[in-house]
Amino acid sequence: MHNFLPTAYFQGKFVPFIDANISIATHALHYGTGAFGGLRGIPDPADANQILLFRLERHCRRLSNSAKFLHFDLPADKIEHVIVDFVKQNRPTKSFYIRPFVYTSDLGIAPRLHNIEKDFFVYGLELGDYLSPDGIACRISSWTRQEDRSFPLRGKISGAYIASALAKTEAVASGFDEALLMNSQGKVCEASGMNVFIVRDGKLITPGSDQDILEGITRDSVVTLAKHLGIDVIERPIDKSELLIADEVFLSGTAAKVTPVKRVENYTLPTERPITEKLREKLTAITENRDSEFSDWVYKISLA
Ligand code: PMP
Questions:
Q1: Overall pTM > 0.90
Q2: What domains appear along the chain, each with residue ranges and CATH number?
Q3: Which residue's alpha carbon is at the smallest distance from atom 5 of ligand 1?
């Protein structure tokens, strides 16, 4: 069971989390016509009266774009204001995750996006490591990632997550920690809720945004940091066989941060991971407000 933060934003106001409930007839529950965000925050290790949110503005912009696919005009700055107030209301004391959600909130049937009410809520939970930071085993999924021509993959649409759920459960049921999905071209795409990177001959390679990936904000951070550190970054399609013989493989995501992969199927990867570690250390320092170079990625909320 999760430790949910005590206050949620629901139907336009702050209410106790346990009172923020929806009807069984809620439209989005039936048709997957919702979209969500997910961002992390921590109490500032150097100042107990300050909360640090990682790339708040980017997360709000992505959710606002996701809302457009639901024909819902929800400006990023409105989301941002609500999230800042949400944090002030909750005063979290541990590492936490915020889940803002937009959805067709009317009651009743018929899949559509016109003539239907939409709403927006926010709740949060305490969240430590989502995957083992020591490394995980990945299975190549028998499920294929959706294609952008049949699904707006640049939105974090709730209905899309049936593929992630099937893939994750298949992986765990067969003794792995996480799944890697291929795209419809048979190229490496992403994990159930993380983007994927490989290292070959000192170069960092990740599928480009034309490969049916979700445009992850951690992915963008990793690419930016790698370039800043002088590491060559190549965005291109990745073959399955490259995964198996890579020097390093890691996953990136808000929940997963940078998680090393120690095995793909029955191929064990090297335990030395210099580039993964360098990027992970840099990213951790930034999120903890210990790095002046990328301090604009950290939104600071004073609780004093
Ligand atoms: N792919 C999918 C399918 C995801 O759900 C996520 C998590 N949001 C990611 C990638 C990673 O994105 P981000 O770094 O923005 O969390």
A1: yes
A2: 7-126 (3.30.470.10), 136-287 (3.20.10.10)
A3: 193
